[in-house]
UniProtKB/TrEMBL annotation:
Residues 23-343 form the Carboxylesterase type B domain. The keyword Signal applies. This is Carboxylesterase type B domain-containing protein. Keywords: Signal. PANTHER family: CARBOXYLESTERASE. The keyword Secreted does not apply. It comes from the Eukaryota.
Amino acid sequence: MSQAALSLLLAGLAYLLGNRPSPTVTLRDSATVRGLSSGYVNELLGIPFAQPPTGQLRFQLPQALPPSNTSFSATAYGPAYPQQAMETLDYLTFLNSSIVVTPSTEDCLTLNIIAPSDATPESKLPVVVWVYGGGFEIGGTSGYNGPVIVEKAVSLGLPVIYVSINYRQEVKDAEVGHLGLQDQRLALYWVQKYINAFGGDTTKVTIWGESAEAISAALHMVTNDDNPNGLFRAAFMQSGSPFPVGDISQGQKYYDALVSETRCSSASDTLQCLREVPYETLLDAVNQSPRLFSYQSTVLAWQPRVDGVFLTDEPQKLVQQGSVADVPFVTGTLFSFSTLNITTDAQFEEYLQIYRFPEALPTTIQELMEFYSANISQGSPFDTGVLNAITPQFKRIAAFQGDVTFEALRRFLLQHRSGKQPLWTYVTKRLKTFPVLGS
């Protein structure tokens, strides 16, 4: 074929791809969803899966949408849930801008579906449900390139449908804990109800998360007496496993501080008062609480906790008891996570004693410190010399937090489930020299 003929063929193909009609999907209750055609994929974006959690539905469990026969324009990502402000230094601005997703609003419970352009209800393709990470504080779906994943899958001859979901971050009262996890669960029910219309197979859904939401994926495996209710057949966890969350009472001080900051302390029903305060007032109050990049780092303020309902016990105890969904899973660690606020041996010791092991003897803390060398070249990411040594303690803290937050918990899960269900683990070294996070 001549160069001219090839150019003409490619131009014609590009024209046809760029001029395909907008994909329209009819749901089982007669509602229609109209999206975008982009290359070899269809994008249906910002589809509501629950009633807006605003007004009296603020801090309520997610409510399913009533049946509808309306038409919905699904051509743009929905807004993220209100983001907790981050504390960074100038040299982390690039990281800050890459994680924080705007715009944001309380009306955020939407999902996005990316499918091969030729997918039909008869295709019965596998489905991956992506839940973004962010320390249960930040993040959104628009920062992740679902079309690239679907296009790559198509090119490999293994087409999939990609679903990403927005969810709320955590603010707890005894009656309405785990809003984010409950949002995710309702989104999984939505997928079961409607994904066939987009070409997906409801029996081939994999829940997939990274960092905090790898932890969420793991918690979905140990909730509901280890019964996934057919919501997913497999799990893929990138930097996260069943996590020691503590009792819900341990989050009471953060709830009380939120009540105080919003001037709801004198209210007879503080939760109802929080539902009624202006959005900006509530957001300002949340920003007064400890954050992912603050001193206490991964000792998170708004993480899930044992409430006796969604989480009936500590996740590690549930794993020991065998209360884990009997589905195949993959788990591994992608990045190294530290904190900027600990720069001396004394601060490291204080951090361990106050935030990590408050009941440990000082001699035990000293022994622990000896396991993690202050020699920069021996810190995490390992085998990278002095790279990523933003502060004198940065790589030392990264090594410690990598073990306590990711590696130890991953190995604990694998040790207890090996031989009981199909499982895989991996080591990634591809991004070892990536600034700040490494690998």
